[in-house]
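>> received
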Amino acid sequence: DHRVRHRAFDLARELFARYGLAERPDEQHTMHFFDTRSLQLFDAGVLAHSCESWAAVDNDDVAIKVRGKRARTIARVCQAGENETAKFERDEDLGQHEVEAFSIATKQAAGVVAALHAGQRPLEELLWQGATTAAAAVGVPWDSLITYGPIRARLWALSLPGIDGRTRVEMWNAGRALLLEVSKVCRRDQVEIVRSQLSGFFAQFGLAALQESKTRLALVALTRP
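>> returned
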């Protein structure tokens, strides 16, 4: 899959008013990221995070995502277990080059992720074989990781003017920061069309593509008083 994205920072309220995003989201969850104080993992193209669903107590997971040159190699050696979901894709932020990404999420039983954040379970203990392999391949420094969160994530699948089919809209509340991402998964032969449609949609609001990723903006916002 190829996913094309556009991000807006603290300017989402106009979209809320115009397209009804104040309505109940299709999906809602709480996220925490794990990294060093200097964001060593993020800068190396690695994301470690947990996700707790608001809708189902048995739909939580812990995931490792690797972006960049190592993604394809790690994807080849990682086999997803019975309770793991693996995904390889190409991500593209508008105005930037595409990046290959491989993620593997380990499903958790009810209450396990909550126990992790309560300090009762170590992060590495919750990763099954595939995610453990990915973490080992990129040298995750377990002893120096701290928790960044919580981040409240809300997701909608919308029909937006000028964009074919349904479009994914994701809103993050990270500390005082309000972050919006509009993305669409498409085949590689559709990338140019989707890129043009997303660019045209955001041009209506006078928004330019950000040079910083949504995740980094959230992590930095969570370190501010």
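>> The longest strand covers residues 146-158.
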